[in-house]
Structure of HTH LytTR-type domain-containing protein:
Amino acid sequence: MASPEKMERFFKKNHILEENIKYIIRQDSKTCLYLFNGKVVKTYIPAKTIITSLGSSHFININKGVYINSRYVIDIKGNNYTMIDNKCFEGRSRLSSDQKTFNDEWQTNINKADLENPVLSHLHILDDCPIGFSVIEIVFNEQGNGVDFFFRYCNKEMESIENLPLEQLVDHSFLELFPEDGLTWVAGYADVAINNTQKVVHSYSNTLKKYLSVYCFQLKPRFCGCIVFDSEETVKDIISQTSPFAPSHFEFLKQYI
């Protein structure tokens, strides 16, 4: 059994987070972790040990040697599971209790989804909002084996945040516009857009050379609404408008300095 310290080093070395794993498969006597960025991490560490160390309840053992991240299931037909990258896995003919529970919940959520609900028709009221707002759609690449997202709406404030005019943002792909930023962003947005979760993503954009904070929520399946802040500029603005400056109000920052 691998120690917690060994597992922590393994995750850090390979940049592994639970939300960045699409599925785990046992192949050629190795455990293979398929990540969002297309990378496959191979190890002799058992899958159960990895999942336990991640502390995740999102993985389902659908068949011998196959664990799927339930966050990224986009279709279930019988005992066949289609993942976000269009990879299809055949599960057990006789479902386990975990499979049955997940399948029932997944089907209930799909039945409740209003797939015809318009998303973009009224967003013009946010055009001049002083806070950045965008709507993104999770999509597959042309080969159907990778995940990307397109900006379907951006208000005017997004121009200054993303350093691009609206015509170069709207209906353009994230990976096309920001090739240096990898798929960490995509994985977080996909979780929100598919599973109707809410999330705050704080991360550094290598392309823009700035930190961004994005508050995400699902608008409808595959569509994510994003409230976007330039983190550094927001903090500077807060401090500059605190007059007279009261250091005691910012005591909580000391633990991060």
